[in-house]
Amino acid sequence: MDTVTQISVLRERLAACRQQRIALVPTMGNLHAGHLALVAQAQRAADIVVVSLFVNPFQFGADEDLAHYPRTLAADQAALAEAGVDLLFVPTETELYPRPLAEQTQVWVPGISDQYCGASRPGHFVGVATIVCKLFNIVQPDIALFGRKDYQQLYIIRRMVADLALSVQIQAVETVREPDGLALSSRNQYLTRAERALAPQLYQQIQHTAAQMGQRSAPQLEIELANRLNVAGFRTDYVYIVDADSLAPLQVGSKRAVILVAAWLGRTRLIDNMVTQLEEATCHSVN
Ligand code: PAF
Q: Any idea which residues carry the catalytic annotation?
C-alpha cells in the first residue's frame, strides 16, 4: 500500500488506473471494524481502493473534541495494508485548506444540514459536505462508501451528489456493532468503564421503540424513548422518528421510518439509528 500526502502525487498515481473502477473510503482515522467493513465492501465493488485519512477541522465546533480526537496513524496504516488497500491519502491541513478556514469555499446542503445533529452542531455538515466534495474532486472515484451509523451524514452526501450532479455512486454500509449492540465509533473510547456498561442501552431502547411503531404516535414514542434514556443515565440531545427516505416528518404514505437518536453519556456524545418498515395501516397512526 502506498501512502501519499500530496494531491498532485495522488492524482498522478490514479491517472494510471483510470481504466479500472476506483472506490474511495473517506475516514478520519482511528480505524475500527466499522471502517474495515467499508474497505471490504469497497474491495468487492471496485478494483482500486483509496482510503483517505484526515481529521477535518472544518467539521468540528469550537467547543468540540478536535484537539483530543484520537490520531493513530501507524496502527491505521498497518490495518489498511493488512486489509489490502491500494492507496492511503493522508493530506496535511495546509494541503487541503491552503487558505484560512474562514475563507474556504463552502458546500452547504440547505435545510437538512441545520436539523437533528446539525442543530446541535452548527456548521458541522458544512464542514462534512465541503471536505467530502473536495475529496471527490481530488480522487474522482467511481464509488464512495459511508456507514449507515451516520445516517444524516449519508443522506446529506447523497443530496450533495444529486444536487451538484457529481459523478460518483454512493454506497451505504451497515453499522458494525459490538457483541452487546453498541455501534462502533472512535468516540467510544472516551467512555468510562461505568458509561461503557450503560452505552448498549442506547440501541436496546431504540429497538424497543422500533417494536412499538404504529402502536402510538411518533411524537409520543419520541418522548417515551427520550425519557427511558434519561432515566437510564443518558442526557438525551434529540430523539426523532422521521421518514427514512426524506428525513422529513412522517406522513401518510411514508414507507419507512428512521429513529434518530443522539445522547450524551458523561462527556461523550453517542449517535445511533434504526430504520423500520411502516405498514400501510400504521402510517396514519404514527403521525
Ligand atoms: O464520517 C466521517 O468519518 C467523516 O465525517 C468524513 C466523512 C470522513 C468526513 O470528514
A: 35
